[in-house]
Amino acid sequence: MDSTPTRGGRLTRSTWLALGTVVALVLGVLIVAGWAGMDKLHKRGHAASADHNHQDLYSCPMHPEVRSHEPGECPICGMDLVKVESPSGAGPSATGAAEGLVPVHADAEAARLAGVRTVEAGPGSIAATVRAVGNVVPHEGRVRHVTTKVAGWIEKLHVNATGQMVRAGEPLFELYSPELLATQEEYVRALRTAEELSTSSLPEVRRGAEDLAVAARRRLELFDVPSSFVEQLRRTRQPTRTIVFRAPFGGYVSEKAVVEGHKVEPGADLMTITDLSRIWVTAQIYEAEASAARVGSPATVSLQYDPSVSLRGRVSLVYPTVDTETRTLQVRVEFANPGLVLKPGMFVNVELERARAGGLVVPDSAVIDTGTRQVVFVEAAPGHFEPREVKVGMRADGKAVLSAGIEAGERVAVAANFLLDSESRLRGAVSGPSAHEGH
């Protein structure tokens, strides 16, 4: 190597090599220092971002959608913002989770102090009972009006009080009728004529006389003259001024329109006899309970003055129209009436049984009904409550049948679940997007 520093005032090759080595070392140091600085800035930026994500949040107690990273006042109602803890894992994770609600975490002591209580959902069935107030009315097929087919006068009343009990065949009244008296005399003459001509040698004459007697007897029967009276008249051949009319069947005199001496015309209602051994009860139920209105379905009646008395019957008729004022459907139930415990005009308690529904059964208090959906809170783990949207099939006797949303064996909150609902909504509002962010 040439060790001469300069030659004629010019740098030698070795000098140039030394200078290049120094420059390369300086550039390497600068590059390494630059990368280190960038890495440090990058880490500092992540730390700052993490600090920003975990800084305190403030929310309005009345408007949870209002959130801010700094204390202040609510722009809607003016209340002071309250510090809240930003929830973690706010999004619902369970299948069937209710939209807008998030899981709620609470330790055992907090849940106990809040009054949270859970029960296990299990298979079962319930039968809904529709309760209504019924009105006792007479059985229309057991009401009979007593009338006459001839004009006359009431000579005597054997049944002279409304509410009196009569048996079939008992005398009701005695009627004087000129037309009936003339018919009796006609029948007696026909009988005598038939006897006189019974020895005639002409068959036509004998048969004609007999036909006249049969026709006169038939006329008395068509006037509703009792057959016993007609038979007596045939034997005695003595017409009577009055004829005793008897009860066509047994029952109670529910109406009486005549008194002794009253003149009656054909077809006039004299009295009404009602058989109360079987009775009707009419009840009104709401349209939503129409599934219980089925002909033949069982029904139970209890008395308001004596709840120990219970009668069982069946629905005999569902009326084809709905009352436009009360929006109710009328049903008719038929009952046996032993001892006349059911009296027309009485109010009674009616219970109609609906079809049974089966599925997962939980207490009715576990279901939160918002009007558009039903929600329950399931304890997925100790202290971890998840909101689930469910479908309720039937509710009755404090229980509800769920057709979807949970599985058998899961535990649902049945007490303080409204507190869980409020906490879930609040956390969901805090964790979700808000138009008031950064107030």
What is the topological layout?
Elements: E1 6-7, E2 10-11, H1 13-53, E3 57-59, E4 67-68, E5 82-84, E6 104-105, H2 108-114, E7 117-120, E8 122-138, E9 143-146, E10 152-157, E11 165-166, E12 171-176, H3 178-196, H4 203-222, H5 227-236, E13 242-246, E14 251-256, E15 263-264, E16 271-274, E17 278-286, E18 298-303, E19 310-323, E20 328-336, E21 347-363, E22 368-369, E23 374-381, E24 384-396, E25 399-404, E26 411-415, H6 417-431
Antiparallel strand pairs: 1-2, 3-4, 3-5, 6-24, 7-26, 8-17, 8-21, 9-16, 10-12, 10-15, 11-14, 12-13, 14-16, 17-20, 18-19, 18-21, 19-20, 21-25, 22-23, 23-24, 24-25
Helix pairs in contact: 3-4
Would you give an account of this structure?
The protein is an alpha+beta fold. It folds into 3 domains: 92-126 and 358-431, Beta Barrel (conserved putative lor/sdh protein from methanococcus maripaludis s2 fold); 144-271, RNA polymerase II/Efflux pump adaptor protein, barrel-sandwich hybrid domain (OB fold (Dihydrolipoamide Acetyltransferase, E2P)); 278-355, Efflux pump adaptor protein, beta barrel domain (Elongation Factor Tu (Ef-tu), domain 3, Beta Barrel). The chain contains 6 helices and 26 strands. It has helices at residues 13-53, 108-114, 178-196, 203-222, 227-236, 417-431; strands at 6-7, 10-11, 57-59, 67-68, 82-84, 104-105, 117-120, 122-138, 143-146, 152-157, 165-166, 171-176, 242-246, 251-256, 263-264, 271-274, 278-286, 298-303, 310-323, 328-336, 347-363, 368-369, 374-381, 384-396, 399-404, 411-415. A 6-stranded antiparallel beta barrel has the order 8-17-20-19-18-21. Strand 3 and strand 4 (67-68) form a beta hairpin. Helix 3 (178-196) runs antiparallel to helix 4 (203-222). The two termini are 77 Å apart.
